[in-house]
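Table 4 source record.
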Amino acid sequence: MFALVTPDVSFYPSFRESHREWGGVHQDGAGLFAGDDVTSPEGFEPWVRKLLDAENADGSGGIVPCTYRWIISGSQYVGAIAFRHYLTPALLNSGGHIGYGVRPSARGQGAASWALRQVCYRLAERGEPDRVLLTCDDANAASARTIERCGGELADVRVGADGQPFRRYWIDLAGGSLDRAFR
């Protein structure tokens, strides 16, 4: 049903539909920032290239290497998931290793849980890191359930720079804990 793929310009029409669904709202896990043009093919291609290049970031300016994958179903872009290779102090406080987002019309179909499990299994096979940090808004019950379903243990609830509370979860990737968590 779902697959994780490397970002590719061939998904432009489907991504553009998804972008409209988000209505300009930030898309967790997509690597989309203010100034990125994803509404035209001419802007989409360099943005996809930027996502692919992020895996080899040198860490300067607080930008850590990050692997982006898109969640697809057939030829349709469903969402995105990103893995930051290590944590800076800021990411340890409020960003985490993994971020994900699913387009509004595809929510509730298990895409986020599936993608998070896939990324966790791949990282566990690699043998590092031993655990990953994920964060979500305290009010985002769906994301909290997804993280908890995937073995996330609540570490704490903090208040962000915007004054809103957010949750910090750790998922243990070592010692077979994934198999226990995903039963």
